[in-house]
Each structure stands twice: as structure tokens, then as C-alpha cells.
Amino acid sequence: MDIEVGEVRQIMDWLSSISDDTGPGTTRLLYSPSWLKAQQELKAKFESLGMECRFDAVGNLFGTLVGSKSPERKIATGSHVDTVVRGGKLDGQLGIFGGYLAVKKLLETYGRPKKSLEIISMAEEEGSRFPYVFWGSKNIFGLAKKEDVEALKDGQGVGFVEAMRNCGFDFGDGRARTDIEAFVELHIEQGNFLEEENYTVGVVSSIVGQKRYNITLKGEANHAGTTLMRYRKDTVECMSRIITHCLDKAKAAGDPLVLTFGKVVPKPNTVNVVPGETLFTMDCRHTNAAFLQDFTALLEADMRDIAAKGGIGIEIDNWMNEKPVAMDSKIVGFIECVCQDRKLNYKVMHSGAGHDSQIFAPRVPTGMIFVPSIRGVSHNPAEDTKVEDLCVGIKALAYTLHELAY
Ligand code: GLV
Ligand code: MN
Ligand code: MN
For residue 350, what are the contacts with CB-CB under 8 A and spacing of at least 6? Predict the structure, then answer.
């Protein structure tokens, strides 16, 4: 069951060309025109393979290759169709087009499965347009609440609900799916362990815990020429002190703690005005839930302290708090067996990135397959994986699905 390099290149280039702008990289934000186009064209592609397709209320796409003996039992694969701003051609969509190529190969080689095989193109995972993550997978399990998104707006002031309805979708009934027997997600590693240690496949054992924040500092906008330094309430100065302090603490805490201040929006964001208000984000991750909780509590207290000393107001909004999640040991074992049988060079490993699988794992037996990322670069247009490694990853997925569904 070898996967062809040319076919992988073609489908990868096709899907990454569906982007909100001309690049560099792919930007496909939730409920944008390119997001809708990608979901519609994926539906047509799945249908051309004889799959039954449907969207749920919020726009998750499900393509089902109906099983011949127990069609009601579903073995699912897939990932998220949205990207970060200026993302690469693999994060998320590899799990979708790789799932498609794996199912196509299985159908060509073995015919219909006994149980149904389902490919899920999940609506959203990144939290790149609105401050909400896992909208796709959370809706599959009735975990997303109307109240969580009703007031959200994107950077242009467009409301979450408005954007969703403009694409023809709406809130669901909140019911959780209970018919998925197992979920296996193929994804790029996004780090450099596999490459450094010369492995072709990563078998994920657990996914990192993660907290995300919006922090707003409130000072006073004033004239850059006439306001003496001692009279300023400069929120960019305060933010700089906070960020330097927190990053020093993160470095002192050591691996595997990671801390990122990825977005900074000063107001009025112009050259000759002391910035009177600044919004910035913080993303903090660790494998140990208690450590993550204690560390971020410390940072929150220090931030309040630094702001108070500078006479600056501060609002801290912790809008995401996901605990570390273990993958299912049986599925991990299945994937390991596949790698051993096919003589694939694999490593059992932890994931430092968040994934849809972490929403599935507490509810459905779940596993993940990683392929190496060149230089560990991801969330960047330069994100890449050797096409031969992509083929191996898709093959590992296909054999795992075969174990589970045939
Ligand atoms: C998702 O890509 C994440 O930020 O881990
Ligand atoms: Mn990502
Ligand atoms: Mn991803």
C-alpha cells in the first residue's frame, strides 16, 4: 500500500492554494470565503470517492465511506481546515488530505471496510480569527456553548455569529456524537525531535496543557513631544516590563515550560502618541497541569504588581485553559504495531502543540501519528516535511485505519 509522491504533492498544493490572500503561505481563517470554498471543495472530493457527506450545524464536514458489515460503527480520522495567519501547507490540512489519500488507497486495495470510515474536516482549531479554540471538535461533543462565542469579534470588528451565519451555518443542538469508535489524527510534529533523532514517524502518547490570555493595559494617550517622561502612563513601557519579567521567569523554569507573547496591539498605534492602551496575548504551556496552574498564577500576580507600580490599569482575561491529555494506550499500541510490522522508524513522543485529538481523547479512544517537520518550523509559510515522509505518515495512517475498520 504505497502512497505516491506525485499524488501527495498535487493534493497538498491544491488545498493550500485555497487561501484568504495570495500569501506568502496559506491564511484560511474560520468562516472566511476561502474557508467555505475549502470545505465545499473537500466535500466534492470526498463524494467523488463514493463517500456520503454532510456538514453539521457549525460547518464541520464529515465524509463517510459506509461500512459493509457494521456501518453504524465509525472509525474516524481528520484534522482542522483552518490555519493560522500566514500558515504553512501542512498544519491541519495534512490530517484531512492525508486521511483522504489513506481512505482512497484502502478502498482501492481492500474494497469497502466492515465498519464505516469517516474523514472529518474540522471547522476550527487554531483560535486565529476569534479568541476561541477547538470550535470544530468541541461542537462534535456538545462542549461549545453559545455564550462562549456570542460576543466575540475578530480584529476587523466582525462578530463570530455574523461570520458563521454568512457562511450558511448556525449554532447546533448541543448534542454530543456517541457513534465514533476511534479517532486517529495525522499531523506534522511542528518541533524538531523526529528530525534531530532521525525518526520518520512519531506515535503521540500525550498532548501538552495550554493556557491563553488577553491582557489589556490602560494608561493615558498623550502628546509624544510635550509629555515629560515622568508624567506618562505609557502602556507599551508597562507591557515591555511585564514581558521581559515573565520571559525571564519562563527561562528560569526550564523545559518543557514554554511562554509566548504573540500578539501586541497598542492604541492608537501611531508614532507621536504615548500609547494609552495596549492589548497583548500570552500563551503558556507545560506537560504538568499543576505546574502550569501554579506558574501562570504567579505570572498573573506579578503582572498586576508591575502594572500597579507604573500606575497602569490591567485586565487579565484567561480565555483558554486546556489540561494535558493522554492518548489511548490501545490505539498507541495499534500504531506501534503497524510501525513495527511495516518496519517504519518510529518514536513514541509527547506533543507540545495543541490538537483536535485532545478534545477527542477524553471521549473516544484516540491516537495521533506525527511526521517530521523540517527544522521544526511551523506556523510559518516555510513549514515543510519531506514528501517521502508524508507518504510514510499517510501509509502508517492507512494501515492503522485498516486494523481498526476492516
Ligand atoms: C495549535 O496549533 C497550537 O497553537 O498548538
Ligand atoms: Mn496550528
Ligand atoms: Mn494543527
Answer: 204, 205, 206, 207, 208, 256, 287
Q: CB of 272 within 8 A of CB of 223?
A: yes
CB neighbours (10 Å) of residue 261?
17
Distance of alpha carbon 296 from alpha carbon 63, whole angstroms:
40
Pocket mutation for ligand 1, best pick of 284, 379, 380, 383 (most atoms within 8 Å of C-beta): 379
Model pLDDT for residues 16-26, shown as the tens digit of each residue: 999 999 989 99
pLDDT in tens, 373-397: 999 999 999 999 999 999 999 999 9
The span from the CA of 185 to the CA of 121, in Å, is 11
Mean pLDDT, residues 90-114 taken together: 98
Cβ atoms 8, 89 nearer than 8 A: no
Distance 84 CA to ligand 1 centre (A): 9
Q: How far is the CA of 117 from the centre of ligand 3 (A)?
A: 21
Cα angle, residue 130 at apex, residues 44 and 237 outer, rounded to 5°: 145
Ligand 3 centroid from CA 138, angstroms: 15
Spell out the domains of the chain, with CATH numbers in brackets. Answer: 5-207+325-405 (3.40.630.10), 209-322 (3.30.70.360)
Q: Note whether 266 and 277 are within 8 A (CB).
A: yes
Question: Nearest 5°: phi and psi at 323?
Answer: -80, 160
Q: What is the pLDDT of residues 282-308, one digit of tens each?
A: 999 999 999 999 999 999 999 999 999
Spatial distance between the Cα atoms of 181 and 364, rounded to a whole number of angstroms: 6
Q: Using alpha carbons only, give the angle 182, 188, 189 rounded to the nearest 5 degrees.
A: 100
Per-residue pLDDT tens over the stretch 228-240: 999 999 999 999 9
Mark 149-184 as b/e (b = at least 16 C-beta within 10 Å): beebebeeebbbbebbeebebebbeeeebeebbbbb
Q: Length of the chain, please?
A: 406
pTM of the model: 0.92
- Closest of 96, 105, 22 to residue 60, by C-alpha: 96
